[in-house]
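Provenance

Sequences were taken from public entries as deposited. Structures were produced by running a predictor on each sequence independently, with no templates supplied. The record for NIF system FeS cluster assembly NifU C-terminal domain-containing protein from Haloprofundus marisrubri is shown for reference.
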Amino acid sequence: MSDDSLKEQIENWMVGQMPIIQMHGGTSVVREANPETGEVVVELGGTCSGCGISNVTATNIKADLIRDFEDVRDVTVKVPSTGDQGSSTVEGGRGGELQFSNESAEHF
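Predicted structure for NIF system FeS cluster assembly NifU C-terminal domain-containing protein:
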C-alpha cells in the first residue's frame, strides 16, 4: 500500500467522523500516514483547542484508527493550545493548514 493511499483512506475515515467534531466547531487534518511503520499523525484544530473533551476525542480517534485499519499501529493526535487554525478548510470540516503549538506528551 502506498503512503498516499493510506493517508487518503484515513482522510476519508476522518470525514466520516466530522459530524461529531464539526458539530463542536472542530477541524482535522491527517499530517502523516506511513504504511511501512504504521504511524499516523492527526491534528485537530478549531474549537478542539482548549475543549474539555478533546482528550476523549483524541483517545477515540486513536483507538478507532488502530481498530479499523490493519496497517495502523501507532496514532498521535495533536491539538493546538492557541486555537489558531489555517484559513482553508475542506469538505467535512477537515482543516487545511493547521499549525499545532503544543507537542508535549502531556497534552494527550
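The chain is about 35% helix and 20% strand.
The two ends are 29 Å apart (CA to CA).
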